From TrEMBL:
Coiled coil regions in record: none
Domain DNA/pantothenate metabolism flavoprotein C-terminal: 182-393
PANTHER family: HOMO-OLIGOMERIC FLAVIN CONTAINING CYS DECARBOXYLASE FAMILY, PHOSPHOPANTOTHENOYLCYSTEINE DECARBOXYLASE
Record-given protein name: Coenzyme A biosynthesis bifunctional protein CoaBC
Keyword Zinc: no
Annotated region described as Phosphopantothenoylcysteine decarboxylase, given as residue ranges: 1-186
An MF annotation (GO) of this entry: metal ion binding
EC number: 4.1.1.36, 6.3.2.5
Annotated organism of origin: Actinoplanes utahensis
Keywords: Decarboxylase, Flavoprotein, FMN, Ligase, Lyase, Magnesium, Metal-binding, Multifunctional enzyme
Gene: coaBC
Length: 405
């Protein structure tokens, strides 16, 4: 049974932590809830005690003979703070320990996950951004807040992610332990399939569901990265801990990805952009012609986003491309690896009811350095971690090379 500390900050989103607590306990984990005094103004001590089955305290003077301000942190195998207020993030970043929770954060030697929740202006304030950067540099996971309804009538970034999403990323962090090999890195992932308008109701597209891209985004976040996910026409739930950018067409995907890649250490092109688009887009729905014979549709070639990124790749930046093929997969992928100047390319054979929309994937990884590995059918979450294992190895090699005299 994993020992988890659930820290609860003093924000209106504290009530959502009750659902997170339930997810932990129903999964068989032991949970000690450590709220701040302000948090108890939103959800009372009896609620936390009843849901966790354990006593609840906020101050270092409660049960002082058991030295809780040291013991709780030492015993924890995972600490999750949800909601993490701006005040709490500031205290954690500066080592302030004025209650039981902040003392626990100083004594914990296990992974710590912060799930911030606050008004948009507070999240975007330079002081908060600096505190978040400090915590991430020290190896903590600070997941990006969601965009949505805040307190009152306000709407924006700062909403606590869904408890189930926090639970998922927390469990992934726990499985990896302190091996946060992407901590301090900015990872850009693209996902889904683009749609090229033909008229106001029709488009050219493909069968990509975005599942592999979303698995990659979640894996990168759990390994400590700051993640930007550029999502094209995906209907999956928003993953916790990422900056989500929604796009529709290949040109929109290109613009968002190029912009995000400018500050990225790693770019993973898991989306399936349309290779072609209609030369013109009809302003009204295209009607059937007399006799039922449609007019010919002229197509033009879309930009090759991965190739553009490869040509502009900065020293030390890692580019991972994807090759979804219906035939001659390895031969075609090796050509793409060279043309796109990628460091890695992920090869899979696709088709109707094959890979697209499925939860499992069979891939071959090819590296520009000659690396080759084929993996049998695996869950897409596992495929994502295998890809980032190779990415992390290359990033580490760069660091070691830079440190050599």
């Amino acid at each position: 049974m994993t020992e988890i500390v659930l820290g609860v900050g003093g924000g209106i989103a504290a009530y959502k932590a009750c659902e997170l607590l339930r997810l932990f306990t129903e999964s068989g984990h032991g949970v000690r809830v450590v709220p701040t005094a302000s948090a108890l103004k939103f959800v009372g001590e009896p609620t936390w005690a009843a849901l966790s089955g354990r006593p609840v305290a906020t101050g270092v003077w409660d049960d002082v003979h058991e030295v809780p301000h040291v013991r709780i942190g030492r015993a924890a195998e995972l600490v999750v703070v949800a909601p993490a207020t701006a005040d709490l993030l500031a205290k954690a970043a500066h080592g302030i320990a004025d209650d039981l929770l902040t003392n626990t954060l100083l004594t914990a030697t296990c992974p710590i996950v912060y799930a911030p929740a606050m008004h948009t202006e507070m999240w975007e304030n330079p002081a908060t951004r600096a505190n978040v950067t400090t915590l991430r540099e020290r190896g903590a996971i600070v997941i990006e807040p969601a965009v949505g309804r805040l307190t009152g009538k306000d709407t924006g970034k700062g909403r606590l992610p869904d408890p189930s999403a926090i639970f998922e990323i927390a469990m992934r962090v726990h499985r990896r332990g302190l091996d946060l090999d992407l901590a301090g890195r900015h990872v850009v992932v693209t996902a889904g399939g683009t749609r090229e308008p033909l008229d106001p109701v029709r488009f050219l597209g493909n069968r990509s569901s975005g599942k592999q891209g979303y698995a990659l985004a979640k894996a990168a976040a759990a390994r400590g990265a700051r993640v930007t996910l550029v999502s094209a026409n995906v209907s999956l739930p928003d993953p916790a801990g990422v900056d989500l950018v929604r796009v529709g067409t290949t040109e929109e995907l290109r613009k968002a990805t190029v912009e995000a890649a400018a500050s990225a250490d790693v770019v993973v092109m898991a989306a399936a952009p349309a290779d072609f688009r209609p030369a013109t887009v009809a302003e009204q729905k295209i009607k059937k012609a007399d006799g039922g014979t449609p007019d010919a549709i002229t197509l033009v070639t879309n930009p090759d986003i991965a190739a553009e990124l490869g040509a502009a790749k900065r020293p030390g930046q890692i580019l991972v491309a994807f090759a979804a093929e219906t035939h001659d997969a390895l031969e075609n992928a090796r050509g793409k690896l060279v043309r796109k100047r990628a460091d890695l390319i992920v090869v899979n054979e696709v088709g109707v009811d094959r890979v697209f929309g499925q939860d499992r994937n069979t891939v071959t990884l090819l590296g520009a350095d000659g690396f080759t590995a084929t993996h049998g059918e695996l869950p897409k979450d596992d495929v994502a971690d295998m890809i980032f294992d190779q990415v992390a190895t290359r990033l580490e090699a760069q660091v070691l090379h830079a440190e050599r005299p």
